[in-house]
Amino acid sequence: MSLTRKKKEKVNEVPTKITWKEIKRQKVLLFWSFLIVVYGVVFYYLPLAGWVMAFQNYKPKDGIFHSEFIGLAKFEQLFHDATFLRVIRNTLAMGVINLVVCFVTAITFAILLNELQNNNRKKVVQTISYLPHFLSWIIVTGILHGALSGSGIINELLVAFHIIDSPINFFAHPKFFWPIVAFANIWKETGWNAIIYLAAITAIDPCLYEAASIDGAGRWERIKYVTLPGIKPTIIILLLMNVGNVLNAGFEIQYLLGNGLVKSVSETIDIYVLKWGISQGDYAIGTAAGIFKSLVSIILIVVANQIAKHNGEERLF
To answer: Which domains, from first to last, does the chain contain?
Structure first.
């Protein structure tokens, strides 16, 4: 018995000794891995040195090494700024709305698409659905402006069906801005986001569907008791990853669709950084806002991961 156990342990052992022979054999893989590591260090980690600006009265002419150190003064300035508090509200609100609606619509669309029996129709619908992902936000906002303008198709349909008496300028009313942003994100990204859920659904054992059918389960029951539990780990992992992006509510669409009439609801943290950190030359305040955004994102991911861990669900770490 002990001899058999020793043999099994020997088989399961993973060699940890690295020899020059092994390095030469894996030289191509090591070379490309080295390039990727260098790229990550140069473009993701070295720029973090610029965070020092948030703790300085930074002047470009003095540089990082000679600017006056002022501690947390810029962060105090941020949280005493009513404009910054407003953009936090806008960013968080649009981030949560986008997370919920895009998440739900992507899962729903993937399940409905999976229920199509005709493979040719399924391929056509899937192709059409993810094509908007490849359009730039400039094109998307141009389409929205055309459709929602006073003479656009939306106003024409609303007037024709006597829902409204006269055309509405949707971009002049703050109450319409967040729904417009949510709709744009749904239209642009639902098909693309559904791809990973479709892949998870195809990995479900077909025998489970057959067994459910034999037990008398209808289509809805098969979705509820087979499909959804089968893709639950994928849903949890993607939800955890997307929670960290709540404050990445967007920049392009808000910047392109925003105007003076909806300024109170359209500005996000990214626009604030552009306006006050770059356009006004106050790089320190822009860096402080960026650090705040990054720290909140990290905290959200850690908290969400711990909640998933506590409930026994899939987690990132």
So the answer is: 15-69 (no CATH), 75-310 (1.10.3720.10)
